[in-house]
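Section 4.2 – Deliverable D4.2 (structural model, holo form)

The reporting period included a commitment to supply a predicted holo structure for the target in complex with DLL. Inputs used:
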Amino acid sequence: MEKRYYQKEAETMPLDSLRKLQSEKLVKQVKHVYENVPYYRALMDKKGVKPQDIRGIDDLYKLPFITKSDLRETYPYGMLAVPLRDCVRIQSTSGTTGKRVIAYYTQEDIELWEDCCARAIVAAGGGKEDVVQVCYGYGLFTGGPGLNGGSHKVGSLTLPMSSGNTERQIQFMMDLKSTILCCTPSYAAFIGESLKERGYKPEDNCLKAGIFGAEPWTEEMRRDIEKSLGIKAYDIYGLTETSGPGVAFECEEQSGMHINEDHFIAEIIDPDTGEVLPEGEKGELVFTSLDKKAFPLLRYRTRDICVLSRKPCSCGRTFVKMAKPMGRSDDMLIIRGVNVFPSQIETVLLNEGYTPNYMIEVDRVNNTDTLDVYVELSADKLSDTTEGVSALEKALSSAITTMLGIRPAVHLVPPKSIVRSEGKAVRVVDKRKLHD
Ligand code: DLL
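Output (structure tokens):
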């Protein structure tokens, strides 16, 4: 297959040149941050680190971490590292608790961010001939603006749909012959389901690829979406704090996301001790922005749990790959003492032939945690008798028990009874929090 790069030289840079580049950029960035962000300067002073102690990436570990609570504390402009008049944009997190995080961008920051998104689009097979339908939300959320900018850079015809209004999404997709779909995986699954309901087969659309991210999704979900839309589904990762989507993206191998290491340094740490873990070990992902000028976070703790790999990739990119994040450490549920990620339940459901329409409810009754999983009965299982449904519920409960080590109560519910997501899906209701 023909190799697809947007910025070949950077994306395939030999490892020693990459380390050198990262080192040079890091030294400059630390100086920039120390001189311009009093909050950061105080953190470094407290740790006894001066900019001259950072001579390259091997000194990275000396720097203090930045966490979301630092960002809340410095809201809105305490992390600004350039004069406000040099900023041209803000974006913000979708967080529902506490103060939102605000990220600010210079024009150059926007250019670099959009370049990262352009790399993702080209890696997914996009080019000037493509019609890119962007149905991530536009506005403060970075998904729409990021992929929109990337698509412009590639020179594709960009459809700035934003999320929702599925009827219109389908009409435009069919009439304008969209070839690349950008949205959350849960919305992609919903679009696939909606197309089928309208009598379309996967081969009736012109889509060839999808660029899906902003929420955890499993390999099983990827297979499901690829089948229902007749496409290749690529993962894309990012967070508002590091610009937005495009920090990492999948290539044609579809086996993890290349981190744009010319712009970001990635580390994996033990979330409890802060110790840096060797390649291949699972832990919390930490990013250092090497080029961002307005909002340059150093060693930002994402709370996303994943693994990095330097195994050479057949696509020719040298950038390290991150595995699909299992979710944020704060999305992890502890149920009867067992750590549970919603994605583990999703894996079982899809493997057992159910649709990705489910809800997880956790509660505490008589001091014992309860776990209830609501899953839609698929149309082909609908005609079963009550006994038949109970048998299915039992079988599914056993399959989940094998995965998690704890037994859930499974409830098969009628098709369409679980609300569909147009953006980031909310799949967990933890009622225990109401009792605390
Ligand atoms: O979700 C940016 C984005 C937009 C990424 C569009 C990809 C596509 P935030 O709203 O700040 O930014 O949320 C960031 O979402 O820390 C992860 O927990 C999660 N996340 C993002 N991408 C993925 C992914 C955008 N591919 C938070 N897989 C991150 C799993 C993801 N989780």
